[in-house]
Write the structure tokens for this entry.
Amino acid sequence: MSVDTMPAAEPLYRSQRLALRYFTAAIALFGVMIVFGLLSAAYYLFPSMLFNTLNFNTSKIMHIDVLVIWLLMAFVGAVYWYLPKELGREMAGIRAAEITFWVFCVAVALVAATFLLVQYGSASEFTLWFINQGRKYVEAPRWAAIGIVAILLVFSWNVVGTCVKARRMTGIMWVMVLDLIPLVVVYLDAFPADTNMSTDLYWWWWLVHMWVESTWEVLIGCIMALVLMDVMGTSRRIVEAWLYIEVMLVLGAGILGLGHHYFWIGTPQYWLAIGGFFSALEPLPLLGMVVHAVYDAGMHRLKTNNQPAFYWITAEALGNFIGAGIWGFMMTLPQINLFSHGTQWTVSHGHFAFYGAYVCGVIAVMYVARQRVTGVPMLAGRTWRWGFGLLNLGMVGMVMALLLAGMAQAFYGRAIGGSTLMAFTTASENLWFKSGMYARMLFGVVFAAGYVALVYDLLRSPRRAPAIAAAPEPA
Amino acid sequence: MDIEDPSFWRAGAVSTTLVMLVVLAFLSLDSMRYIRAGGINVPPYDVINRHIDYQYDWNRRADVPVIGAPEPLFGQPVSATEAAALMRTGKLVIQSRACMDCHTIFGNGAYYGPDLTKAWLDPAWSQIWMPMTGKSTREEAMVAFLMHPDRYPTWTRAMPDLAITENEARATVAYLKWLSAIDTNGFPANFGRSMR
């Protein structure tokens, strides 16, 4: 749909109403994630805070697990939003999807309550099934992990079933349908408790890397393709060609780029060369996305009827390239990674990558939905700029502060310190490290203020303004 | 060949992905030879009956574990079966207490506490915690610390009390000893060699 034909009063599909519920839950959990992020940052400044009551590990679990869940909810919402539009019919299995939304919400609340109130158990299978699996990112007890598999299966049926019932497949939908296979299959690795830490981490990285650096990248690529056609009126032919290029480069570099996680876990030495080489290629697809975004922006001379969505799409392309690509490359060559791995340098990359690759993208979709729901032909104004500016400033500030702290650790703790407990302590008491931690906290507060501005802008009634006539798009 | 035709890039995407998946499958099969317990880089669990050291290898240009003379943990040799059972419990302790949401192992986890990859070899046990706990061996000092870490703080970032029982603590110590014997391609860097 081109921008000049933006509907003002078309009724929403049921799946789009469900998408709005997913967006609401996602944005609420985004806030929870920020609260526990600030709390986790505060432990570095006030280590005795809540000692033996709510320890750092619980706060950290809440921060990263909620991150995964809110992004997953936002992805599901984005797909539910665009599915009927892309295929021209109501989504298949809508009733099951509506039920699983509430199951999802209740499960998230129960797991959060368990993490906060029970926290840990004895060394038994019972603990893994009902309290905490203790594996980073997938700490949720097994019953909840089974629930996530069930939700992903319903989601997969919604997508595939809608394609079947519509008797229509687009290039974007082919990519999305095929991407559902690893999205579900790789997650099955959330269950084992392998005694051998080397094999445990080997397969755990399939889950973490293949989800975050491959499957999710492809999924957000599909979502961004739909957003670009929607917001900028970009032709399907251009969008699909770029999507295939992105898939080729993301998976071409990313599948063996997995090797940069296999440097130090007991794996053979050849992973140093393979992981280093393919990691160096990983920024390429992300650079392609930047080229694509700049091309589209130039085609439209920065004119759009949905300014917030347009700016968040641009932020996604640049943030993904710099945060995931450049920041990742900066530390993944084994010669550097030997010193940077497992320091706040990694945290710097992690924050920038998740934010650039995913957070900016899903916020863009939320603004698309907001324009459609409110029916304003031109979404502009000033309030959204506060959210955009503060969130980006807060994130860049946190990333730089963490990089400063991480470099101090790599140098003082590893390179000259000797990597022992005493070296870790000495590096953590270093002025550069402590300055970085204070700066991270400060910019974390700026980021939280940006979140408040974002929520305010998403909830308030938009100002009405005339739409911009879109330039004709070359086929 | 029309490079503006999406089907051209579709073919590239499919073929590249398939080739990379096949290569990854072969590399994963080969990697298992190295990382299974008793494999090329990962010792069997009963390595805890031996002395373990970590020395610089000039041929590898990296620190490597050196398995030495018999040195049973807690002075009691264990069979392979008993060692495997200890490791099972030790790993369950690490998961049930979410240790890797404060610490790292092989650099993976969270960064609030120190890396545990070579924790068994850390001089702090003999220099700090043996005198502090009044224990005469490293492993006894580690057990005392793990059971009541908040009684033996050495820094502002103290470890909380996670209700670890004596059996769980002994299994965790065994696990940390086994971990230290894994060849990690020289990670963590310069272990135990401060250049200050």
